[in-house]
Amino acid sequence: MDRLDLLVKKLKKSDIKKEKFDNILLNLYGMFEDADLIFQTLIARGFPIDIKDGFVYLKTVKTNFQDQTFVIVDIETNGAKPYNSQVIEIGAIKYKNRKIIDRFESFIYTKELPEYISKLTGITLKDLEDAPTQKEVLKNFKEFLGDNLFVAHNVKFDYSFLSYKLNELGFEKLANRRLCTIDLAKRTIKSQKYGLGFLNEFLNINTLIHHRAYADALTATKILEKSFEKLPLDIKTSEDLIEFSKSAQIVSQEGS
Prior knowledge:
- By secondary structure, the chain is an alpha/beta fold.
- It contains 12 helices and 8 strands.
- The protein has 2 domains: 3-62; 65-255, Ribonuclease H-like superfamily/Ribonuclease H (Nucleotidyltransferase, domain 5, 2-Layer Sandwich).
């Protein structure tokens, strides 16, 4: 269990007095560090913590999932591994109270684009030649994301890739809470397959474009909406939603 997971585990049990939380941070990150600096760095990285009446709390524990701001993200890259490739397109949707409230979309400049990536996405080097740099786009994306809940279809890939690149570019790794629409769909929607393309057709979402960042983020948003319609009534908070998505619960027949 990494340090963020340990903090989440503690904060899910109860709010923690600030002085005690400072000691926890020092034990996790180093006794000779500055606890307040660690605290502010975690917030800057997107970890959704705040202080009320002298107690530190996790926002996703207190927030009804209906009132949560979700940022649904999709990226296109010119390779599978972040250490030797980069993001070439990013699309993100800010979603709250069953409505899209904002959007983020950009190509990213690169000199290298393998032919198979171009065939898969339809993106060409010409599309990218005048695009802003990866550093500029990811800085703006990080500001767009804030400390909101990061959502993606196969969230591990998008989150890990972006976190690696942000850290590489000097912005530090992400610390946002995250939700996978594949996991959530498996627990709410009865389907033979759970890939984005299959669910797009199976659920009659019918987004016309596939393997483009904003279009895929839009499809994932629609999957999120349909999953919400099938949630058990005991799912109240954003943390309830995250925990439910990771559970071993099997979708019921009513979820078909």
